[in-house]
Amino acid sequence: MPDTEPRPTFDLQSHSTHSDGTLSPSEVVKRARAAGVALFALTDHDTVDGVEEALSAAGDMRLVPAVELSSVHGTHEDLHILGYGIDHTDPELLATLADFRQDRIRRILAMADKLRALGFTIDPERLEHESPGRPHLAAALLEDNDLNLSKNEVFARYLVPGTDTYVGRSRPTVQQAIEVIHAAGGLAVWAHPYWDVEEAEAALREFAGYGLDGVEAFYITHDEAQTRQLHALARELGLITTGSADFHGPTHDHFNRFRAFELHGLEPDLGRLVAD
After folding, report:
1. Residue 221: which residues within 8 A CB-CB, separation 6 or more?
2. What domain range includes position 39?
């Protein structure tokens, strides 16, 4: 990014200890404010349990109640749909999220069993989490076994599609995730397309047909060509364009700071996220 281009003052994806982050919701918000974020969202996976704490800590920073739903679509088993401006107290939403988390628990425990069958030790208590994910399992595998591997190498060897110990999720589909977010009064936005798929255009067009409201065009790992393609597609399809550095904690390998994504001279369209 050229030095003359201002850093974005919004950062609309982050994670706390309620999912795969390492800090409490209030500490995540505190660090975001200190980094100069003015418009913010805590987007834990399949849970809104940290939203109230985040709202209480936000002060004069605008915080949008949000969630990130891990979804399946065809051969893709982990696409993420962000829900912004949801009613995080809605009983139907809470019941649905509890069901989605049961599927998360099922797959993580199934993968742990497969790893144990290979002779690895995994303490069950390490996986006792409200919204367990593969990062928790990778950490347990590394902590309980003498492995000369990085966390990325653990993922590549044991926790991704195509490996013998991988177990996929069963729900929700991308379309179902969009419907759940809309039912809770929110906007549905596809997170980090190019982190998850090699070619995003066809999928984005399909998801727009399901009622998708936006795409995370600006993202810490998107290069300029990817960002420009997503921005142009969003304008064509009438979608909003959000962005984030996907903060998971200060020691994370990739996602450890705020506002660390580039706009490449483009104008984000945050829609009602700035109008409400």
Report:
1. 192, 194, 195, 254
2. 10-94+185-275
Distance of alpha carbon 185 from alpha carbon 245, whole angstroms: 25
Higher-pLDDT residue of 275, 217 = 217
- CA 131, 89, 179, 66 dihedral sign is negative
Using alpha carbons, list the distances in angstroms from residue 229 to 12, 66, 233: 20, 26, 6
Residue 276: predicted pLDDT: 60
Chain segment 34-63, per-residue pLDDT in tens: 999 999 999 999 999 999 999 999 999 999
165: DSSP letter: T
In a domain, 172, yes or no: no
How many other C-beta atoms are found inside a 10 Å radius of the C-beta of residue 264? 18
Give the global pTM.
0.88
Q: Name the residue with tokens 């705020």.
A: 258
Domain count, the chain: 1
User: Does position 13 have pLDDT exceeding 60, yes or no?
Assistant: yes
Q: Which of 8, 5, 50 is nearest to 26 (CA)?
A: 50
